[in-house]
Amino acid sequence: MSAPARSPRPSRPRSRRPRWGLRLATGGACLVLAVSGIGHLLVRELDSGIHRVDAFGGLDNRPKNTGGGVNFLVVGTDGREKITPREKALYRLGGAPCRCTDTIMLMHLSGDHRRVSAVSLPRDSYARIPAYTDATGKRHPSHPRKLNAAYAEGGPSLTVRTVEHLTGVHIDHYLEVDFTSFMKTVDVLGGVKICTARPLKDDHTGLDLPAGTHVLNGGQALQYVRSRHVDGTSDLGRIQRQQRFMAAVVHQTTAGGILLNPVRFNRVAGALLGSVRADHGFSAEDMVALGRAMSGVTPESSEFASVPVVLPGVPVKGVGSTLRWNQAKAERLFTTLREDRPLVTHRPKRVRATPVDVDPARIRVHVLNGTNTTGLARRADRALHATGFATTGSPADAATPDVRHTVIAYDPVWDRSVRSLAAALPGARLKPVVGQGEVMQITIGADYKGVRPVRVEVPKTDTAGFGTVTGDEVVCPEGGATRSL
Fold first, then answer.
1. What ranges make up the beta strands (E) of 134-276?
2. If both were cysteines, with which of 50, 207, 251, 256 could 223 make a disulfide (CB 3.0 to 4.6 Å apart)?
3. Is 65 helix (H, G, I), strand (E, B) or coil?
């Protein structure tokens, strides 16, 4: 059994120019639009407010959609023309917009309208841009590039063609959003609740988030989903945070009364209109149908993945460092989407749990009964074991039966691990004991009210190898203190 975790490892060196502003921003905005039941009185306004782009003109040799469901290609640009100078300074959004793609994401709504799957396509993925003719009539042969170069070279249509060639997934609709849309949408939602087991700080984006549960406004949420210098996990950690954010958006939109409140919905929809661009075929009627179809989507029926890649990146002459996909896993992933099957096949009913930094399975615990209640230590031992802690299975009585407050005695070397254990025993007092060793000792006191379920903040991924998590694994638990920054 692994020992409890010690102090965190130092973060990796920063890269020069992180440009991942909307990997989740776009997905969040798309989900807000999708899960909101759009009333007929708003259809005309929505339809007239969306800017149209030719995303499918001239495409040929396209894959067929034979499995059912609807596939969206959602891309995000770093457009920031309507962001105020104060917001640019406050949220570190300076510089000129490049109108390039920060995010490329496939979103699949199942044919039975019960499931939504979001798959992130890393912008640095190695890709072969298909041959195309540009606006001047010049013919360009197929050539290697990073995936996001397709938008820079040929806009939405070349992006669609490149993604279809890479994945074999037929794209039904194209949506494009930017920083402004994301921030405004979060604000009119009333903020989005995010929880973290450890402090998150990124000097590049300005993110400074203490451990706990927070309601983030639009600018703070943008910092949260863009940050990649928080810890040594780099892009992996950022993708996990973006998954949590998307799950929170789904939960807040479906459970927050927006669907039943025309005034609130009108404000949310209006926040998207100024910067959303969509294909010509995505009509007002499609919006209504999509809203109805997704009105029942919940965190439990939403799933999030990123294309499996092979690390480290591979340098390509004239292109730079690229990410190569794990072809076997990627093909299984896209075949699953094409066949309209869930990415996660086994969905046990989950109990909403508090996220913790260290996996409870790595924490050794011995329980003592400091009260006159017979069998209390054994019940606590079983409850801690059920939520994942490595209990000794041999509870005993404490030296005295009149302990008022539950106490956790621990060696200060395991300061991260004890925070995970304390989250399962709200109100317990911590007692550092130098030299105690890796086994923590809990003395149950008269104030003991049971064990709160906890889960490691980085959830266990699916066995299919896609790295998929479902929304209920990553949303915040009910209850607990929440703060607005």
1. 139-140, 143-146, 173-177, 192-196, 200-202, 207-209, 212-216
2. 207
3. coil
